[in-house]
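User: Good morning. I'm curious how copper (II) ion would be positioned relative to this chain. Could you predict the structure with it bound?
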Amino acid sequence: MKKIYMILIFAGLVFGQNSSRKSLIKINNAWIRPAAEEANSALFFEVTNNGNKTDSLLSAEFKFAEKVEVHETYKKSEDVMGMRAVKAVAIPVNTTVKFKPRDLHVMLLNLSRDVKRGQKYGVTLNFKFAGKVKVEAVVKEMPKM
Ligand SMILES: [Cu+2]
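Assistant: Good morning! Here's the predicted structure, ligand included:
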C-alpha cells in the first residue's frame, strides 16, 4: 500500500512539472511595421492565455533593435495621443489581448538594419510564468484606418 502512495506522489510530481513547464501562451498574427535603419518600428500580435492563471508580458527581444520596450497608447489631451513604456501587460485566463496600432505594442527602437516588407524575423516575448516564447513576425504595412 505504501508503495502505491509513493508511486502516486512521484507521478504527481512529474506530471505537475510537465504541465507547469508547458507554455499555455499562444501568439498569433505577429507582424512588424516596415522601417529604415536607425528609425523605430513596432511589433504587433495577439496573445492568448490558455492556462489557469494570469500571465504577464514583461519584455521582448529583437536582435536588430538597440532597445525594445512594451508600450501602451494613452490619451495625452483631448486630441493628442501619446505612448509610454509599461512594466507589464496582464494576460488574463481565457483572454486574447491584442497588440495593435494605436494601442498596446512592442516598440523596436533604433533599428540596426532596414526592416522591409515581406521579411520574417524571430522575436522573443518574455512572460512572467510562460518564460521565453519565440515567434516569427512578418514585416507588413500598417492596415489602413
Ligand atoms: Cu511605442
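Strands lie at 25-32, 41-49, 55-61, 65-77, 80-85, 89-91, 96-99, 105-111, 120-127, 131-139. Residues 7-20 have pLDDT under 50 and may be disordered.
Let me know if you'd like a different ligand tried.
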